[in-house]
Amino acid sequence: LGNRVQHGLRAFTPLDQKAVKVAAQTFRPNPELDTERVITELGVGEALVSLLDLEGRPTPVERVKIAPPESRIGPLTETERAERISRSPLLGRYEQKLDRESAYELLKQRKESAQSASSSAPERTSPRSGGRQSLGEAFIKSAARSVGSSLGRQIMRGVLGSIFGGGRRGGLGGIF
After folding, report:
1. Phi and psi for 145 in degrees, rounded to 5?
2. From the CB of residue 65, how many other CB atoms can be counted at a distance below 10 Å?
3. Domain finish residue from 65, 92, 115
4. Is 77 left (phi over 0), alpha (psi -120 to 50) or beta?
5. How many independent structural domains does the chain possess?
6. How far apart are CA 91 and CA 81, in angstroms?
7. By Cβ atoms counted within 10 A, which residue in 39, 75, 87, 163 is the most buried?
8. Assigned domain for 129 exists
9. What would the pLDDT profile of 46-93 be if each residue is shown by its tens digit?
């Protein structure tokens, strides 16, 4: 998190030079290194690096060489693959292919057994399907709920107001 790596920057305009100066000031100074000058001199494979010490403080900036990647893009050859498999700590555990029951197969079996059980059960004879409400039913239900809660709130205000001497008199607040 606190490790900083800065590769080479090039400064051709005054704005670029200002950015180099700002980047140099973000490092902990090293008396043996002119950070602002070195940032513009870094070549391929070089960087300025500042790490955290054991107590979490940044170390002075250092100029370092960075090793190139040792990987490659592309698949292993058959001999490389066989050699890596033979060195694997999992050798002997996974070379035999198994076709165990997957979660998909178990769920499919459970669904089929539930369908067969429901087909043997008697069907309901109610006129409503028990599914979704129609738009009209939903509207009526919502309106009734709204009126009921509003009426209940007004009644409670009136009762509590008369008990505790609320500011508004008149019972149901003009509903009737």
Report:
1. -65, -40
2. 9
3. 65
4. beta
5. 2
6. 13
7. 39
8. no
9. 999 999 999 999 999 999 999 888 888 889 999 999 999 899 998 888
Angle at 93 between CA 90 and CA 96, to 5 degrees: 130
Closest CA to 61 of 37, 85, 96: 37
Phi, psi at 49, each rounded to 5°: -130, 140
Question: Letter for the amino acid at 36?
Answer: E
Q: What is the pLDDT of residues 138-166, one digit of tens each?
A: 888 888 888 888 888 888 888 888 888 76
Tokens found for residue 79: 């001999």
CA angle 148–151–154, rounded 5-degree value? 150
Our CA angle for 2, 69, 24, nearest 5°, is: 35
pTM comes to 0.41
From 103, 81, 105, 85, select the one nearest 94 (Cα to Cα): 85
Let me know if residue 102 belongs to a domain.
Answer: no
List own/partner pairs for 40-44 with CB under 8 A and 24 or more apart.
40/8, 40/9, 40/10, 40/11, 41/8, 42/7, 42/8, 42/9, 43/8
DSSP label of 96: S
Residue 83 counted as domain residue? no
Choose one of 65, 95, 117: the last residue of a domain.
65
Domain that holds residue 20: 4-65
